[in-house]
Design goal:
13 strands; four-stranded antiparallel β-sheet; alpha/beta
Length: about 375
């Protein structure tokens, strides 16, 4: 019998999700029914926000949120170097100019001092609107307050795809926060996302642009060039069933994260992510060994891993964004995402840690 492969991520789908999908199919209302609205209400309550707009992907959510926040030609959007490409792509869809900020060496989230440097340079040479798109990365929460030279807070759209964080009282003033429901995320709808906000104008804009720019659905009156970003009833049905389990998911991930951290305490060559903890979406580490080498060694031990995201300013379509981001570069070269999902056991965590240490001993 072949040894078990411990996968880097897996979805937890059970009878509740299957039953929900069957009911959605039997309703014969697969789009624009009541299930999406019900899912949105659950999301808004969970996030402690006034509004949630469900859509067909996390990328769509980012695009809708940035459009609603007024991002367009002439706007500068500052994104962290270490993030999934969707954060930058959404700003590009809006016609904005992008700048890439470095990340903090402890939390690996956007560095506010780098944001400040970029903002001052932009204000001096261009002026115009600026929006910051911080990202909750792996298992750390990003800062959400950025102050311009005039003392005003910069507009913020928070990419909370990894964390599904709940808004604190201090964060209700940000333009919007977005979730992703990709299969690897905290909950899944297959594909999906949501715009979370307390601002009615942001909500109205997200709904308008999500549905092909129709202010009066069903009457074919379109006020703007919109997008077909609607979530299906089937996806929302899965999401509602998943949301009933979300706190169990979070507790399970917290226990697995604690086990990882305990096991790795004795190995100073392994650095774990620090900063304000999120929801345990991922267990990410850095080591002195190049990530590609370590990844191959772990694969031979039946441990699936992922590299850190390629820094945005190294991707071909953004190769003109050659800001110096040494922290993100170092993390990319030496960072690995280890297996983390609710189908894992503590024994699985022990197995991963043992394989990681053994692989390091072979190379250091």
């Amino acid at each position: 019998m072949a040894p078990k492969t411990i996968r880097v991520s897996e979805s937890s789908i059970g009878a509740a999700e299957i039953d929900a999908v069957v009911k959605a199919l039997e309703s014969n209302r697969l789009s624009q029914g009541s299930t999406v609205s019900e899912f949105e209400n659950v999301l808004a309550k969970y996030a402690r926000a006034k509004y949630a707009t469900a859509c067909n992907s996390g990328t769509s959510a980012l695009h809708l949120a940035m459009l609603a926040a007024g991002v367009g030609p002439g706007t500068l959007v500052i994104v962290p170097a270490l993030t999934y490409v969707a954060t930058a792509n959404a700003a590009t869809y809006c016609g904005a100019q992008i700048a890439v900020a470095d990340v903090l060496p402890e939390s690996w989230c956007i560095d506010p001092s780098s944001v400040g440097t970029i903002f001052r340079r932009w204000e001096k040479s261009h002026g115009g609107g600026t929006l910051v798109a911080p990202v909750d990365l792996y298992d750390a929460l990003a800062m959400t307050t950025f102050i311009g030279d005039n003392g005003d807070e910069l507009s913020v759209v928070l990419d909370a795809s990894h964390s599904m964080r709940v808004l604190t009282p201090a964060e209700h003033d940000i333009a919007a926060m977005t979730y992703s429901f990709f299969p690897s995320k905290l909950i899944t709808t297959g594909e999906g996302g949501a715009v979370i906000t307390d601002q009615l104008a942001i909500q109205d804009s997200a709904v308008l642009y999500r549905g092909q720019g129709a202010s009066t659905p069903g009457q074919y009156i379109h006020d703007v060039v919109g997008y077909n970003y609607r979530m299906t009833e089937v996806a929302a049905a899965i999401g509602r069933a998943q949301m009933a389990k979300i706190y169990t998911f979070i507790v399970t991930r917290a226990l697995l994260t604690a086990r990882y951290r305990f096991n790795l305490l004795a190995y100073p060559q392994v650095t774990v992510q620090e900063g304000t903890r999120a929801s345990g979406w991922a267990m990410a580490v850095t080591t002195p060994v190049h990530a590609s080498v370590l990844r191959q060694k772990l694969a031979k031990r039946n441990i699936e891993t992922r590299r850190f995201f390629t820094p945005i300013n190294q991707l071909p379509m953004y190769d003109h964004l050659r800001q110096d981001t040494p922290v993100a570069q170092r993390l990319f070269e030496h960072g690995l995402v280890l297996p983390m999902h609710v189908l894992m056991s503590t024994d699985d965590v022990d197995t991963v840690c043992e394989a990681l240490i053994a692989s390091l001993k072979e190379t250091i």
